[in-house]
Amino acid sequence: MEKPSWTPIVLSGVIPREATDLLAILVMGIVAVEASLATIGPPVFGSRLWLSLLVVPPTVALSSVSTTTRRTKEELALFAYGGSSWQILLRYFFRGAICALIAFSPILLQGFLTTSSIPELFLQVLALLVVGGLFYSLPSLRRIRSSSFVENYKS
Fold this sequence. Notes:
This protein is mainly alpha-helical. The protein has helices spanning 6-11, 19-37, 47-65, 68-81, 85-103, 105-113, 118-145, 147-154. The chain starts with 5 loop residues before the first helix and ends with a helix.
């Protein structure tokens, strides 16, 4: 039997669709809107970047951890379908990156509309993608590497 392509495994879970993901987007979005509306005078270089680096990691990690029983069943099904651990991690990395990018879009839009420098805006987008994706996928790495996951997979 031929092993399936990685594309459906990764892309099937990229879109944030669970209530915890939407709640995380809402929390980070409130912070982003507040930060974009509360600029008095010229913003300090990188202050929005630091704000996003303080808010994104705990919020997306909490969102990723909050539905572990459902996600464990989903990950077991993906393994049974022929997926590998890196495909599951890539799936959660993209989901966390999208959550962070959607939530901080008010700040990014404001930076794009004002005459902000493009390299600074690119740095903010890159930092959001990496931090959001990394901290969203770390709990699933811990789940996949656990002995209870292996025992569930064998049974």
